[in-house]
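Researcher: I'm comparing several assemblies side by side, and this is the next one on my list. It has 516 residues spread over four chains. Same procedure as the others: predict the full complex and return the structure.
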Amino acid sequence: MRRVPLDTEDASIEPQKRAERRSERSTGRRLRGAIAHYLGTAIVSGAIRPGERLTGEVANAEALDVSRSAYREAVRVLTGKGLVESRTKAGTIVQPRNRWNLLDPDVLAWAFSGEPDPAFIRNLFELRAIVEPAAARLAAERRDKDDIKAMRAALANMRRHTLATEAGRLADRQFHDAVLQATHNDTLVTLSASIGAAVAWTTQFKQRTRALPRDPVPDHARVSDAIAAGDADAAEAAMRALIDLALDDTRSAMNAAG
Amino acid sequence: MRRVPLDTEDASIEPQKRAERRSERSTGRRLRGAIAHYLGTAIVSGAIRPGERLTGEVANAEALDVSRSAYREAVRVLTGKGLVESRTKAGTIVQPRNRWNLLDPDVLAWAFSGEPDPAFIRNLFELRAIVEPAAARLAAERRDKDDIKAMRAALANMRRHTLATEAGRLADRQFHDAVLQATHNDTLVTLSASIGAAVAWTTQFKQRTRALPRDPVPDHARVSDAIAAGDADAAEAAMRALIDLALDDTRSAMNAAG
DNA sequence: ATCGCTAATTTGCCAGACAAGCGGCTAGCG
DNA sequence: CGCTAGCCGCTTGTCTGGCAAATTAGCGAT
């Protein structure tokens, strides 16, 4: 059984000892996380198709040079995201795509690690276009002082940094987070984690092809002001406009790329 | 160390020959599932508060009379749902509520196993009121023959059974599933699993207090017809009306209960 | 052809051990 | 006296090896 290195680089050195491979693993990342990442990207990228069966635990664990328990815990993580399902005798099989939890931050990250499907990005924006304007309306009706403060802080950070920097993308994400949070609806806040990840990945994708032509701050400021003023209609409209513009940017970036 | 039975009576499975194992659990359900269920309900119900630490793996595994590996895999499941986080030396601590994945079907089930929070139910309906009308609009624009067939089949099942039966609730769920599916947007389909679970639990909650006073079939039929006809405006309006009515029923059921 | 039984294969679970990471304590130093 | 660096011990992380359970596939009898 061939051995597969779990960390990205290193194709030159023959893997002799586990200690060596462990040193290449970034410090905070647990081994099972690396395994889950490896298998997850393989599945999401299509290298392993739905319906296919992963080779047995013993064989696969040995191929990755990890213990069976670590491998099993990694598979358990994937099971929780709906990517695979394990049954005795049948083995662990890759689930059909409609069972995947596409809104899970990890799955999103794996999906964007390769060349993301344009249709998938369009779908993500469609979801944002449904949820975020409605959330902005609710936020305008329910926001309190802390919510406004959080929005303003995120906006200030967006002004300070640009979207080309990691800090800028984080601020963008914080802004959308703050809006969702201001709805005071726990289920929407849960969606915030997914939508936030989608925002980050799509903006990064935009940056990949060319510099962003439009300053995003005014659009965000309009949303913020409308919510702070308690104007539900204006908040919804401003958020809708913001997402439309972001979609335009992303779409043209995709066209420019290919 | 006291031992806690893990049994989760399902009451629907025929009493098979049970191997005299330590802790009886219904067939098909894996041990780690029972552990995750036990810990999950304890956390979601508030018996273990956010910030608190679970007793160590060794102690807890022994208390439940399971091996440490099975216990660890259960904890890994909870980690995937955002309920806990494990760090060496610090132990596994319960995450704050806004980190929980409240849309996960299991988490929803655990939340509804006790007395569900009325505010939580209101939030779920708010989410449905945002997503499903918009989805109905998209469905009306994009549905194909198979989508219409699936909707009609679910509707027929709703007519055959009542919402008081398990089959009826399943049909209801299939209907909403079919609508989301007809959008041909993968991310919305992902939400379908969560929303479907929410629909099932809230309808069951309605039934708990009194018989449903209103026949839900005409409302659903209006949605189905509008989508089949390709009338986006009518589909959106019909779905909005449906959810409003369902919310009314649930609200009055909650008022009657307490 | 159908049913029931057996065997084989794969995951599920168990037991014990050691490694790694990390929080806190303590001793040494300025 | 305050502060920092290093040690200690606690908790999770991983490894090893083995056995049990479940379920599919094949086979044989009816």
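Model: For your comparison table: Residues 30-32, 66-70, 73, 87-90 of chain B lie near DNA strand C (CB under 10 Å from a C1').
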